[in-house]
Design goal:
With 512 residues, the protein is of the alpha+beta class. It is 34% helix and 27% strand. The strands form five sheets. Strands 8, 12, 13, 16, 17, 18, 19, 20 and 21 form a nine-stranded mixed sheet that branches. 33% of the residues are buried.
Length: 512
């Protein structure tokens, strides 16, 4: 049984009073004719057409939205209502409505209620576009007050009260309330939508085909991550929420779909941090007859295109850092980058034992059971990654942490792989993809031998994927990017939960 606060009980009483008066507090329909921006644009158009000194032609409109501010002043009331496109002032006075109706608005309606108001557009003495209300009705009564409140002092000294929401934890937990009271948050998610739209537009214009691959998979793969597992009752088998699209998208290359991409959700049963969420939006594409060098060029062009379309520029600020995404981006070999920041040349340490000893001399103690590749990955995250502020392609990685990438022709222990870094974190990952089924089978077997049974990065054998490869897979370049991180960059948000509508959080009971 819901326990209501004292304020909620007052609003529930108002609902009963409305019903007793024959007024439905939740009517079925609205007769809105204009959104706020359309009404303002119509007023401006009428003003431009009017001759000097002549009143513009009357613009009538029926608006609808949530009450965000109220300022009763006896015989008249100013209020602001907000719809999906913005806020607009409405003006109620007894000349048009009578005192009873103005009192009804002031006493029976509250901040957060949805209303419909009909009348004509005008400008106040201060020049603000305003709807002079001739009729109004309630569309939905809010039982719960919008979270918190703040006062705004106007130029004339009067004070109006606005709904507000500033607690970051509460905002993420109650995103519906956050969106309702914070216009800047709505802007973030409109920007997110635009970023995804222009990613699609860029790839479509480059002849990539958007496809859909299974979310529930009998064998997970394509990344080094721990999956979520579920059980299908009819099939009587375990299924995994995908951690990557990769192995399914590359099957399509076998079927002569030469350029494919997917934007969708991946799921990884791992830790939560400022840049990690258990489910996240991923973009992956695979490009037949391309290699990682061609993918580098396409990547920098794609990100620059999206930035230009969304922000109007390729240079912008993220968390106080001036970033420049104008192509070409910096290229840095992983070996050289590590040498620059640690003084350790990984080529001089061909075994994990040797590399571990070198790290111990720096007073670093990674897991002594780590493979050489994992030690190199530790060095990357510990020393090099934080220094990569401007967009940088870090290339040529150890084979044992890249089981799906093709080895360099002159160095079988190094693969043609790059990661894109910016602002000190990874943005994207790409390979010249392995297309030799015999080599791929050997890599799967290596992963089984070299990693313990409970290792989260152990890559399972996928016999069907190998069967697909045996039909012949063209040489290709593959790419993956966490779309959420790109959104973080372009909206200047440090925490991933600020750009997810419904991020995963600890339960409220755990936090109490």
């Amino acid at each position: 049984m819901t326990e209501y606060s004292s304020l909620e009980k007052i609003r529930l009483e108002k609902i009963e009073q409305l019903k007793a008066e024959g007024i439905n507090p939740f009517p079925h329909r609205s007769q809105r004719t204009h959104i706020s921006l359309q009404a303002i644009a119509a007023l401006e158009a009428a003003e431009k057409k009017a001759s000097p000194g002549v009143s513009p032609e009357e613009v009538t409109a029926t608006l609808a939205g949530r009450i965000r501010a109220m300022r009763p002043m006896g015989k008249l009331t100013f209020a602001h209502i907000e719809d999906g496109d913005g806020r607009i002032q409405i003006f109620l006075r007894i000349n048009e409505l009578g005192q009873e109706r103005v009192d009804f608005f002031n006493n029976k309606l509250d901040l957060g209620d949805f209303v419909q108001a009909s009348g004509s557009m005008m400008r106040t003495r201060a020049g603000e576009p305003t709807l002079l209300v001739r009729d109004f009705s309630i569309l939905a009564k809010a039982v719960s007050p919008l979270p918190a409140a703040k006062d705004e002092t106007l130029e004339d000294g009067s004070v109006i009260r606005h709904a507000a929401l500033e607690d970051s934890e509460l905002r993420a937990r109650q995103r519906y309330a956050d969106l309702a009271v914070n216009p800047d948050v709505r802007k973030v998610f409109r920007t997110r939508s635009a970023i995804i739209r222009f990613l699609r537009e860029f790839l479509d214009e480059h002849d990539f085909l958007e496809v859909e691959t299974p979310i529930l998979q009998p064998i997970y793969g394509g990344a080094a991550a721990k999956p979520f597992v579920t059980y299908h009752n009819q099939l009587k088998q375990n299924l995994f929420l995908r951690i990557s699209f990769e192995l399914y998208l590359k099957r399509l290359l076998v079927g002569n779909l030469e350029r494919v991409y997917e934007i969708g959700r991946d799921f990884r049963n791992e830790g939560v941090s400022f840049k990690h969420n258990p489910e996240f939006t991923q973009l992956e594409f695979y490009w037949a007859y391309a290699d990682y060098l061609k993918v580098m060029e396409l990547t920098e062009q794609m990100i620059a295109y999206v930035a230009t379309q969304v922000l109007g520029k390729t240079k912008f600020t993220y968390q106080g850092m001036e970033l420049d995404f104008t192509p070409p981006w910096k290229r840095l070999e992983l070996r050289q980058g590590l040498l620059d920041v640690t003084g350790i040349d990984i080529a001089s340490h061909p075994t994990s034992a040797s590399l571990l000893d070198a790290l111990k001399k720096m007073n670093k103690t990674p897991d002594p059971k780590s493979t050489r590749g994992k030690l190199i990955d530790f060095m990357l995250s510990e020393f090099l990654e934080p220094t990569l502020i401007q967009p940088t392609f870090l290339y040529d990685y150890p084979r044992d942490i890249s089981p799906l990438a093709k080895s360099k022709a002159n160095d079988p222990m190094t693969v043609e792989r790059f990661e894109g870094y910016v602002a000190g974190f990874e943005l994207c990952n790409a390979f010249t993809e392995l297309n030799d089924p015999l080599d791929q089978e050997s890599r799967f077997l290596e992963m089984g031998r070299d990693y313990s049974q409970d290792d989260e990065e152990k890559h399972p054998m996928d016999e069907d994927y190998l069967r697909a490869m045996r039909y012949g897979m063209p040489p290709n370049g593959g790419f993956g990017m966490g779309v959420d991180r790109l959104v973080m960059l372009m909206t200047d948000k440090h925490n991933i939960r600020d750009i997810l509508l419904f991020p995963h959080l600890r339960s409220e009971e755990q936090n109490s």
